Input
Amino acid sequence: MAVEWTDDPRTFLARDWDGLVEADPDAALFHSSSYLKMYWEEFGADRLQIALVHDGEEDVAAAALDFRNGTATWLGGFDVTDYMGPVGRPEARDRSAKELMGSMATRADWRRADLAGLPARSPWLSALRVGAEDAGLVAEIVEDGVAPFVRLPSSYDEYLERLPGKLRHEIRRKDRRLRASFPDVRLVDATPATVAGDLDRFVDMHRSSGGVKGRFMVPGMELFFRRLGDALLPGGRFRVAFLEAGGTKIAGAVGFRDRDRFLLYNSAFDHEYRQVSPGVVLLSELIRSAIGERCRVFDMLKGDLPYKYRYGARRRPMMRLRLRRS
Output
């Protein structure tokens, strides 16, 4: 095996590693070359470095990094990309991690590495730590928040029955209250023809929120969302869904269909309708929809926010691998 480094962004297309993402059961859409290409084009990197691990003529693993002021991080940004790190063929994972860390150790352009976005149970986390220590680096794993998720059964009724009685009662009560006020409420999805206007509505709702949430949708972030929609919605991987009542979209969410998982990326609601809890009903309807699409996991991604646990989510620790030279 050997590691090839390049700073040429054309590599995202020329050496497309989306096939490695499909082969890696622990990978997500965030690891794909197509997603990372869009991230790099919108948010950039001080020094983009793409590492390709190949065995003979075959690429068996890939990772994209950013080197800033002597610190190496995965490309993706802590606030934008929930899961980060390398991807590759499972049978080559341990050797690939060893080669990648060994090659990292020979580079003189970093003093420390802060490699976040790795689930605690990811095989890559332990493989990278072993590889780093074998290369003479000092490795430390620290917790970096959580990414709650819900394991989905085969029916929505079964999902509700699995919830504690108090949570189940709250979801049903708020659903009844909203439908009493808006009998025609329904879940609607953006299409390639409507996505531009639908994202206008979503951005307006997001910016009307207070605090950090309201400040998240800066112009650069808005453009990134629009590019994701243009690239991924026609193929069904990007989803923009709304709860519509009385002809008005009162709550919206953006997410990804990713194999047997639905990833809830972001959500917002019209605060004029706060009294009927549109956000609560929207998420319960998205869970119902995910079950109908035979998803096994409803992933609420990073953030230890109380509302996630009202839907029966479990904590999944996220970790960061910190490296320094001995």
Remarks:
- The chain has a mean pLDDT of 93.
- The longest strand covers residues 58-68.
- The chain has two domains: 2-146+317-325, 149-299.
- Residues 149-299 form a domain with the Aminopeptidase fold (CATH 3.40.630.30).
